[in-house]
Design a protein that fits this description.
Layout (H helix, E strand, L loop, with lengths): L1 H19 L19 H22 L5 E3 L3 E8 L3 E10 L7 E6 L4 E5 L9 E9 L5 E11 L6 E10 L1
Parallel strand pairs: 2-8
Antiparallel strand pairs: 1-3, 3-6, 4-7, 5-6, 7-8
């Protein structure tokens, strides 16, 4: 039994050391240039950045405008574990060109966005609804969603918090 514990510890140490090396061992990750040394974190960020970059390019390819949000942060307060809640963030086009929400990207799968798909004319309002499922959480939570719109400082970050109780 003692030798099994020692072998398990040795295997974990070997794994930890090999994960920290900057070797060209990332050939198995699609879309990663494995000719340059990088850590796994570097490789994953290389994979994710193009998607967000494309969303940002799409949003900013339209004529820019300005936007105002009713709020960018919401606190649900205390909610029971397993409860599903939602909050609507009101969006106002304060510029002179149509406002286009090209995408809303939540920080994790527990949050599902819904948003105005058609262009929002100057002076008009749209909405972004964030639906949150508290099933897998306990205690204080803070969540984010990035809104890709045709404004100069995109994406705009929306946040919400809640205290999940039993």
């Amino acid at each position: 039994m003692k030798s099994i514990k020692i072998l398990a510890i040795a295997a974990l140490c070997t794994l930890a050391v090999s994960c920290n090396k900057k070797e060209n061992t990332l050939d198995h990750i699609p879309g990663v240039d494995s000719t340059q040394p990088k850590t796994v974190v570097d490789a994953l960020s290389q994979q994710q950045a193009p998607e967000e970059s494309e969303m940002l390019k799409e949003a900013q390819s339209k004529p820019l405008t300005t936007v105002a949000f009713s709020e960018t942060d919401h606190n649900f307060g205390d909610i029971k574990k397993g409860e599903k809640v939602e909050h609507i963030y009101e969006v106002t086009n304060t510029g002179t060109n149509p406002l286009i929400i090209s995408n809303v990207k939540p920080g994790c799968g527990c949050t599902v966005p819904d948003f105005t798909k058609e262009p929002i004319l100057p002076g008009k309002k749209g909405k972004i609804t964030l639906h949150f499922d508290s099933t897998n959480f306990d205690g204080a939570v803070n969540k984010v969603a990035d809104v890709f719109v045709n404004v100069e400082k995109a994406p705009v970050r929306l946040t919400f918090s809640a205290n999940i109780t039993q």
